[in-house]
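User: Can you help me understand a structure? I only have the sequence.
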Amino acid sequence: MLVLSASSANELFTAACHAVRATGRPAAPRQMATLEILGASLCLTDPRRRFVDLPPVRVLNPAFAVAEAVWILSGSDDPWIYQYNQRLSGYADHGRLMGAYGPRLRRWHGTTDQLDQVRTVLTDDPDSRRAVIQLFDPAADFRGHKDVPCTLGYRFFLRDGRLDMHTTMRSQDLWLGFCYDIFTATLLQELLAGWLGADLGEYRHQVDSLHLYAQDLPAAERLPPETRPGPLMTPLAAPWAELDERLRRVIAGEPVAGNGWTEMAGVLASYRAWKSRDRSRARLTAARLPGPLAAALWRWYDRLEHGDRVPAGTPQAGENR
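Assistant: Let's start by predicting it. Here is the structure, written out as tokens:
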């Protein structure tokens, strides 16, 4: 059993990669070679340090991190998400990702908003052990779809005025998936803590199969033995009654109240400009935004333009064009 704890996603990711490289065993499900650890518990003690940013070795696309988070939180499985990561379309059946978390989170079988249920349970009984969000659905996920949820579910515990979150995953691609999964999950945790009037507690990421694919091992080997803590994200909060409208505005690129929401909306608007080849507008939009995500986006554009030729010492971030 691998047990790790760190204050930031940067440190947790780096330590986990080194552990899988050092002690992982070969496994090749679907003929895809990996190194794997069976049984891992990863604890993030400061969930607002949720963004992995380790240039030049591991860099993220902050626009996709934001897009996936609001796509899930809004309950969507609409294909607009492919604009931010075209690779996802390769896992779709007839254009739809059948394992999309959003509909399961916000309208399970068309009837239950699990996020609202968890909010209500913990409001009515702060010590409850029933604050559970289920994502894996046997009725849907044994049908042979290309996309099957890696996340089984979330649980929340309100203790001593702090909201802790536990995530259980059947499988975790450490190099690609972990960085985006922890971003979305802890953002959800922060919002729920706000609705409950609680402080943000620890985030625990429980994984059955924690693995690195063979093609990612050379890059993982280049990670430093230790790393600096990651950036502290801009605080994010919204009244429950306003959540869906704020998410809609972020997705549409409309003005939205709150620095955290403004930053996310601007990141998506900037990226859409980049995709439409208006690079000057994309950069200008990013430069005017507050917060660490906007800074990461600016560095990511540098990487997209210059690739491996980015000047030494220039921070980088990015993944999907």
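Now, to help you interpret it: Strands lie at 2-6, 25-27, 34-44, 132-134, 151-159, 162-173, 199-213. Residues 34 and 214 are 5 Å apart (CA to CA). Let me know which part you'd like to focus on.
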